[in-house]
Amino acid sequence: MSLDKKGMLRGLRISKNVAIKVISALVISGSIGTATYAATIDKIVVEVDGKKKEVYTYASTVKDLLSDEEISVTKEDKVYPASSNKITDGMKVVIEKAKPFSIVIDGKEQKVYSTAKTVGELLKEKKIELRQYDKVYPAIHKALGSKQKVMIQRAFPVTLHGSDQSQQLWSTSTTVADFLKEHQVSLDEFDRVEPALEENVKANMAIKVIRVEKVSDVLEEPIPFSEVKQEDASLSIGTEKTIQEGIAGKKKKTFEVIKENGKEISRNLQKEEIIQEAQNQKVAVGTKQEVMQEKVEGQKTETNEAKSEGEPPGREFYVEATAYSPNCGGCQGISAGGYNYKANPNMKLIAVDPSIIPLGTKVWVEGYGYAVAGDTGGAIKGHRIDLLMPTEAQVYSFGRKQVKIKVLQ
């Protein structure tokens, strides 16, 4: 059976290589006088990046087909089915060309080629793993665009010290302010942050949030009353009588208190006002001279002799005496009997053991004169007394000595 070789090729869309193979086959088959082809021709659909065309081929594998059709592929391109697959009539071969992309990790950029459709597919293909707190832009589910740039920020550890606890957090923030915003840490008006908000955050950095409070604290304090003495001719010398009780006043102090993380760090007085004025204590001091009786014949003379020496009558005994001043260490200014000796340093006041000499008792002390037992002291026990002196110099000068004391009333 004779073949119309030119008619068979007419109307077929075949490549140059295929045409050569067909003609060669026809020539060979014609030369031996047979009507049988030396090879079978297959109809194939080839699709490259969505563009399709039909071809006729004698290729035995997909790889041969691509070579015949002069379609070059790289290792990043995808070919379906695989290049090693056998060609069959009616087969569809799909070639997907890889596209260029950029992946930037912490500022370092690398160029890649891929057929991935989404950011996630691209990262998986390039074996780039994302940790829990890493950030990627666009998001991993987003489709890749032409020449898309994918940005990745690796998270690093930062220690946050708060008012009551410390914790390690992960961050991709650039500044301290961004870090606090990322972790929803709000700052009040007076709060401080170390380092400053505009400082750049680095791996293993410690950030301190100091909570600052400014509050007002109002305190009431007593105002000590003063003692005012006035002479009274109706009272005997050495006799004192309270004619008006002293009343302590009150004052209010307003402080501005600054606290950091709950601990007070400063206290400043802002305002002071008097709520109630103190009322002075008024004391009458006797000036009346006692008339001495003439000596009665036959009367014992011990008492009269004592009076002639300036000693008043009364129960007498010897004590160990020391002295103190209004400015001594631990002195409060108000005696145990309520006398304000700080305001009246020249008053005649002695500290006693109340079990020996009751408070309020009028006494006469050798070398000191008339006084009132109006104070106590931790070291004043038994037959010991402490004499009030106006100055420390007088205290040191007096020292410690044995003196005679008389209890008048």
Question: What topology does this entry show?
Answer:
Elements lengths: L4 H5 L6 H16 L10 E7 L2 E7 L4 H7 L9 E3 L11 E5 L2 E7 L2 E7 L4 H7 L9 E3 L11 E5 L2 E6 L4 E6 L4 H7 L9 E3 L10 E6 L1 E12 L3 E10 L3 E5 L4 E12 L2 E14 L4 E8 L13 H7 L6 E10 L24 E3 L10 E4 L3 E7 L8 E5 L3 H7 L2 E7 L2
Parallel strand pairs: 1-4, 5-8, 9-12, 14-18, 19-23, 20-22
Antiparallel strand pairs: 1-2, 3-4, 5-6, 7-8, 9-10, 11-12, 13-16, 15-18, 16-17, 19-24, 20-23, 21-22, 21-24
Task: Describe the structure in your own words.
This protein folds into five domains: 92 residues, Ubiquitin-like (UB roll) (Roll); 55 residues; 53 residues, Ubiquitin-like (UB roll), CATH 3.10.20; 71 residues, Resuscitation-promoting factor rpfb fold, CATH 2.20.230; 97 residues, Beta Barrel (Barwin-like endoglucanases). The N terminus is likely disordered. Helices cover 14% and strands 40% of the residues. It contains seven helices and 24 strands. The strands form six sheets. Strands 19-23-20-22-21-24 form a six-stranded mixed β-barrel. The protein has a four-stranded mixed beta sheet with strand order 2-1-4-3, covered by helices on one side. With 409 residues, it is mainly beta. Strand 16 and strand 17 form a beta hairpin.
